[in-house]
Amino acid sequence: MSGAIARRDLLKSAVGGLLLAPFLRQRALQAQNAMPKRLVLVFTPDSHPREWWPEVSANKPGFTLQGPLLDFVGLEQHLLFVRRVDHAWSFDNHHEAGVAQLFTGQRFFDAATHYANGPSIDQVLLQTTALRGGTPIPDIHLCAADRGGGDKRHVCCYSGPGLPIVREPDPAKAFINLFGGFSFGASAASNAPSSSAQARRLALRANTAELRRIQAFLGQEERARLELHVESLRELEIQLDASTVRSPLASSAECRRVDIQPFERNDQDEAAVRRWSKLQVDLIVSAFACDRTRVAELGFGYSGSNHVGMLGLSAGTGGWHDAIAHRSLDNVTRETPVMLAGKNVSASQAFVQFDRLWASQIAYLARRLSQIPEDAGSMLDNTLIYWGAESGTDHNHSPRDMQYLLIGGRNLGFATGQFLQPPEIQSAHKLHTSVLHAFGRTEARGFGIEPECGPMPGLLR
C-alpha cells in the first residue's frame, strides 16, 4: 500500500525504538528476576604480599593457594586470578589514585578532593542494565574496621563525577536501612507494595493513556516533546510494576533475620574486627536471600589504614601499614624481625597473617553464598565477588601488578578455576569491560578513561 510504513521499517526507526523501549526493559527485568545476577565489590587496604598469588605447576593443571588465601581452600573452582593487570595512571604514592580508580577507571574529579571523576562499575550497571531487578533497594555499601565517612581514602564507589557513596559502618543502622518494614517469615505477598502504591500505578496508566490521546491533536514538534514526557511516565510505571515482581528467594529458608548484638567497633582488635565483619557479611547474605537488593559493597579498613596493635603487633613497632606493608617489597626488610603476639616473626610472615585476616572474611562471604542452592548451582554461581586493593603486589606504591580477584559468577560466564597470566600487560579497564559484558552490557567497548580498550581475553567462556 502506497505511503504505508512496513512493520520492519518501523521497528528500525527511532520512533519504533522509542515505542519498544519500555517493553524491552520490562523483558530484561523479567529475565533478571527469573535468574538473578548479583554483584559484590570488596576492598581491602593497601595491597597483598607476593604469597597472595597462588602457586602453579607445569606438571599439573590448576593452582595451589598459599598462606594469605588458605581460608579459600575448597573454593578453588570459584576463583579467577588475573596477573599482569595495571592501573592506567598514578599520583604520588598511588594510595589516593589507586582507590579512586579501583572500580571507576577514572582520574581525579579535582585537585582538592581527589574524588573519582565518574561512576563506579556497580552504578554503571545499575543505570544501564536490569541488574537491580524488582528489588526495593538498589544497592548497599557497608564497611568493617573503618569508621566510614566521605574522605577520599574511605570510598571506592561513586554515583557520578565527584559524588562518593559513603559506606555504613554500623550493622544496626544497616539492618534498618535494609529491612525496615520487611517481615521475616512472611510470604512474598505480605511484603508486596501497599494498595496506595498500586493506586499510584493505576493513576499513572490513566494519565499516560490521556496524554497519548492528546498527541493526536498536536503538531510534530509538540508530539515529540510530549512523547518524552509520556516515556518518563512509562518508566515510572515500569519501576512500580517491578516493585511487585518478587523473586521466590524472598520466602526461602535463608531469608532470615541477622541478630545484631552489641560489640566494640575497634579497628585495632582482631576479635572485634572479626565480629564486626561477620555481621556485615551476614547482612549482605540475608539481603540477597530475601531479595532486598542485588548489589553490595564491602570495605575493610581504608586506603593506608594502620590498625596499630592488631594481632598483637608490638606497640613500639608501629602500625600494620607503616611497619609491615612498607617492608614487603624489599627482599632484605621482608626478613626483618618484628614482634607479633609476643613472638619474633619476619615482616613477610606478619604481612601474610594480616592479609589472611581480611581474606578470611571474604572467604566467609563466598562460602555462605556457595551453600545456598539456586537454579543449577548455588547463589555464588550467580554472584560475582569483585575484590580489589589500591596498590600493586608487595605494596609497591605503584599502579603495576594490581591484585584483583574474581570470585563466583560461573553462571554469568566467568571462566573460574583459573590463574590467568597473559603474555602482555593488561589494563584494568579491560578487566572492568569484561565484567560489564558478563552482566549484559555487551555493547560496552571500554570503561572509564579507556572507552575503546575492549574486554580482557580469557575471562569469559
At a glance:
The protein has 461 residues and is an alpha/beta fold. The protein is built from eleven helices and 15 strands.
Q: What does the average pLDDT come to?
A: 87
Could you give a short account of the major beta sheet?
A: 7 strands, mixed
Count of β-strands: 15
Broad structural category: alpha/beta
Distance between the termini: 48 Å
CATH class of the largest domain: Alpha Beta
Helix content: 25-40%
Percent of sequence in beta strands: 5-15%
CATH architecture of the largest domain: 3-Layer(aba) Sandwich
Radius of gyration: 24 Å
> Can you list the strand order of the major beta sheet?
6-9-1-12-13-4-14
Number of helices: 11
Q: Return the string of H and E elements.
A: HHEEEEEHHEEEHHHHEHEEHEEEEH
Low-confidence stretches: 1-5, 14-19, 242-246
SSE layout and pairings?
Blueprint: H1 7-12, H2 14-34, E1 38-43, E2 55-57, E3 60-64, E4 79-82, E5 85-86, H3 95-101, H4 121-128, E6 140-144, E7 158-160, E8 163-164, H5 171-179, H6 195-215, H7 220-242, H8 270-289, E9 295-300, H9 320-324, E10 337-340, E11 343-346, H10 347-370, E12 383-388, E13 405-408, E14 418-420, E15 426-427, H11 428-438
Helix pairs in contact: 2-7, 5-8, 6-7, 8-10
Kindly describe this structure.
The chain is α/β, with parallel strands linked by helices. It has two domains: 27-191 and 256-438, Alkaline Phosphatase, subunit A (3-Layer(aba) Sandwich), CATH 3.40.720; 193-243. It has eleven helices and 15 strands. The protein has a seven-stranded mixed sheet, with helices on one face. Strands 2-3 form a two-stranded antiparallel ribbon.
